[in-house]
Amino acid sequence: MAAAPTKQALQELYSNTLRSARAFSSYNFRQYFVRRTETTFRDIESETDSAKLTAFYNDKTKELEVLRRSALVNQLYGGRKLVVEEQSAERERSDN
């Protein structure tokens, strides 16, 4: 029987998953995966069964790899920013 992942390993997996979720250039995908990650890890927070924690860790590690590849492809084909996203301030032109 495999040992349950440590709390530090779960926190590292959580932060890596959030980092990958925030790498999407598309606002909708980015927001969806950030919310999904927060919800998923919040649900497992109080779990103590080592078998469930090990299964969760293995499953989410595989999902992290898929998420990383998806974010990379999304960055390649990203479009313009939406109105709800923060726009970079345009420089004002001086007439000097």
TrEMBL record:
One of its GO terms (biological process) is iron-sulfur cluster assembly. Residues 13-65 form the Complex 1 LYR protein domain. Pfam families: Complex1_LYR. GO terms for cellular component: L-cysteine desulfurase complex; mitochondrion. Belongs to the complex I LYR family. This is Complex 1 LYR protein domain-containing protein. It comes from Rhodonia placenta.
